[in-house]
Every structure is written in C-alpha cells, then in structure tokens.
Amino acid sequence: MMSDRPNILFILTDQHRLSGLGCYEPNTPCQTPHLDRLAREGILFQNAYTPCPVCTPTRASILTGEFPHTHGMRGNVSCHNIDSQIMRCRDDTLAYRLGRLGYSCGYNGKWHMGVETRQATTDIIYPGFLPSSTGFEGYDYPGHGGGGHGYPDYKRFLQENGWSHEVIKDRPIAEELSDRGYGRITGPLESTIPYYLGTHTIQLMEDFRSRRKPWFIWHSFWGPHEPYYATGEFLDIYRNVSIPPWDTFSSEFAQMDMPHAAKRVQHYERIAWYHWEELLRHYYAFVTLIDHQIGRLIEYLEESGQKENTVLVFAADHGETLGSHAGLSDKGWHHFEEIQRVPLILWLPETLRFENMKNGQRVDSLVSLCDLFPTFLDLAGEEKDRIGSQGSSLLPLVEDPECAWRDAVACEFWALAGVYTNMVSIRKGQFKYGWNGDASDELYDLQEDPNERSNLIQSRSHRDVLQRLRQRMLQWMDETDMPSPIRKHFLQTSRD
Q1: In angstroms, what CA-CA distances link 171 with 132, 149, 188, 272, 323?
Q2: Average pLDDT, stretch 221-226?
Q3: Backbone Cα Rg of the chain
Q4: Does 478 have pLDDT greater than 90?
C-alpha cells in the first residue's frame, strides 16, 4: 500500500449535523448521494468528534494536530480573540510540513483563522494570518466571511460570467432566529458560492496536475452554516417534506440542568416547531447543493484520470443543534452529541488500499479531528516517529479496525461571541462526562440514552463510572499539557 505518494483532497463543511447525511442517518430526508457514495466505497468513522464545537479552534487543530488549549486559538477570531497571535511564527503547520515532503498545497474557501483588517470594536489590528502566509497557494478569504457573498473575488466572478445573484427571503421567521437567514437564490446554480468554490478548486487541481508532483488541497465550504441559501431546484426537493420534531424537542428538556449560557440559546417556549421545520428544509436544501458540488469535484478527478491516485477525506468542523434539546440554536455551551460528533469519511482508490479493506467499512473506534493532521502526513510518507501530534494517524485503524487504539476522546469549549467559560467533555466507552466550570457537571450513558435525556451525575449506581471518567479526563489534560490554571480549576470545581 502507498507505493506512490497520493494526491489528497480534503473537503470540509461548516456546522454540519449528522442528520444532514444519509450515510449517517438513513431515515433523514436530507439527500446527499455523492457523500453517501464515498461512504459506500470508503471508510466511515462512526464516532468522530470535533476537538471544539466552534469554527476557529477546530480549523486550527486540523492545521496543527493540537487541541485548542495547546495551539492557543480557543475562540473565533471574529469574536475579539487575540490568542491567534500564538500561531503566527510557526513553520510546522500542515502546509509547511507537506511542502517539505514535496507536495503542492492549495486552499480554497472559508478560512476563519485570521483577518486582515482593524477590528473596530476593539481597535486591535490583526496581521494577515491567512492561507498564503501558512504555506498554501490558492485563495485568501479573511475573517468569518458571512457565507462568502461579500468578497470582491466572488463579485468579480459573477460579473465576468454575466450572472445575477439575488436572495429572496421566503417568509419572515421567528425573531429569536433572525440571525439564521434563509432564502431562495434567483440566479442560476453557477452563481452560487458552492459552485464558485468548486470552480476554483478544479482550477487548482488542474494547475497542480501539470507540475507532476503530489498535491494536497483543502476545500472548505462556508455551508451549511447559515445563511441557508439555495436555488429553486434544491429547495423544491424539500418544499412539501414533513420533518417531525426531534425526539429531544419537548418541555422535558427545557427543564434540564445545563450551563447557564446554554439557556440563552434555548427557545422551546418561544419558537414553535414549524419555524424549525422550515429552517431545516432550507438547511437540507443547502446541504444537497453542497453535495452536488462535491460530486462535481469527484467527476473532475475521474475525467482527468487523477482519481486513481487521489485520497478523498470529508469532514465537518462541528455540528449544529437546529432546535434539538428543547430548541437549542447554534453550537457551543453544552456537551450534546449534535454539536460534538461529526462526520468523517476516508476514501482510498483501489491502487492504494490495504489488503483487508472492505467497501462501506464502518469504524466504531473513538477518533478526533486532531487525527487528520497526522493522517495527512502519514499518507504523504512522513516517517511516523517524526509526525508529532496530539492526534494519531487513522491509517492503522483503516488497515485493522481491531488494532490497539485510544480508549477515550475529548472535546473542549472555551468561548463564543465574546463570552468565556471552561467546559470539557470526555467520551469513554458508552459513557460521556461533561465538566462545566461554572455549573454542575453532566454524565450520560450513550448506549442506553443516545438522546442524552438523563443526566446521571447524581446517580449513586454510577459513582464508580463518574470517578473513572474524571480520572481519565485528568489524564488527558496531563497528556495534552492543559495549562495548569485550568487543570487546577477542574480539580476544584468538578462536582456532582
């Protein structure tokens, strides 16, 4: 296996919940035929977790192979977080490492790890920490991007092709969801942001192909993060589809004890299900539009003859609530699976497969998006003892799903929208423990209670489980060099 170093196409979506993938939830109305095909022909990781359910920290973890408390980007750069300066002088991030192995490295799409302009609310100037300053060729889109519609390059793309692009809001939505804009695009499919990104990534692949050396391209969609915009052909798929409420959309969950900040984004009493249902129709339409463009990238690889030597990796940076657990919106602030557990699919061409690999293989082991950095370097031929990462290459699991592997996986959360906290989750076996630095802790049995209905933190029969998980969390903190003040805070505040 791996006689020649393969090309690697890494596709990342933003805020993509598992109900937005047929290969993860067969009963979902969401249609994702191209991603489902990758899963049927490749390897699907059933229990993959984000290192942090927020954009910037997770993207930086993929870039470095480190957890957010190590690389320093613990909140979104657009939320007045200056910790990103820790990253500026590093030459060991992903593209630099791959470049030294002889790879051409390209980037396209949402970055959200750096900005170029003065932040008016703080008067802080951020130097340009962008793809082009971290070893990538391709396209720089600083900041969050708001869906990508405001960048000059995109506007120029529309102008050069004579395409108009307007969004018509379908109808007013609940005031509490006013930031979740959704609507219908009146222009052609070719005028959409996903199509625009697909066009530029195809150009990158074609350019790199002519160099006769391996390439790595990180293609990052802005969606299905809001705003949820799609053309009529995709909205029509869901126009009359009835979407039943989540199992957790009930008053029972509105009474759950959870961090106070989570209550700020819980809207059960104020927003009826039909608002969420309409939002989900647009969300799923946006997902299907994105899936269509993923199919376009795959088609290019097939037609250009490159697919037979290209590894495809698909993941999302974190999940999304969209009304689950009594009307929660957005992400962060809680330990629930909807935001922490993410899709992760690895596709290898026949010429690069391990002997015992099977199509449609599903791996149950606990993996993290921190594992992508060492996996990419492993695929590129880096010596294993030189990779250096807080994650582990996934290739041993691909070769043998029963191989020795970690017994736990962690997820941390520190800040969102300028509000800070201390939260860490750890999953071990069927149990997940959540430490809340400013509220009572949480314990869930994901086998008996997959919807996380019952917090077992006060259960006398689970005292031993709780103590083992707290000890395992402390071990993980030591293994990953958690800053001592946070470690001390955990020891002082972890409580029933």
Answers
A1: 40, 21, 21, 15, 19
A2: 95
A3: 22
A4: yes
The reply to whether 404 falls in a domain is no
pLDDT, mean over the chain = 89
* Cα–Cα distance measured from residue 75 to residue 289, given in angstroms and rounded to the nearest whole number: 29
Dihedral sign of CA atoms 351, 353, 357, 362 in order: negative
- Using one digit for the tens of pLDDT, what is the confidence trace for 340-388? 999 999 999 988 888 788 888 999 999 999 999 999 999 999 999 899 9
**C-alpha to C-alpha distance for 317 and 90, rounded to whole angstroms:** 22
Of 27-31, 57-61, 122-126, the range with the lowest mean pLDDT is 122-126
Residues 453 and 360 in one domain: no
d(CA 313, CA 42): 10
pLDDT-derived band of residue 223, with 50, 70 and 90 as boundaries? very high
Closest CA to 438 of 451, 424, 423: 423
How many domains in the chain? 2
Residues 394, 476 within the same domain: no
61: domain CATH number?
A: 3.40.720.10
Cα–Cα distance measured from residue 99 to residue 106, given in angstroms and rounded to the nearest whole number:
10
Alpha helices (runs of H) in 336-423, residue ranges in sequence order = 337-340, 372-379, 395-399
Ranges of beta strands (E only) in 15-99 are: 43-49
Residue 338: the pLDDT is: 95
- The CATH number linked to 437 is 3.30.1120.10
Q: Collapsing DSSP states into helix, strand and coil, what is residue 206?
A: helix
**Is residue 106 included in any domain, yes or no?**
yes
- For residue 217, the cross-strand partners are 9, 106
> What is the domain extent for residue 128?
7-399
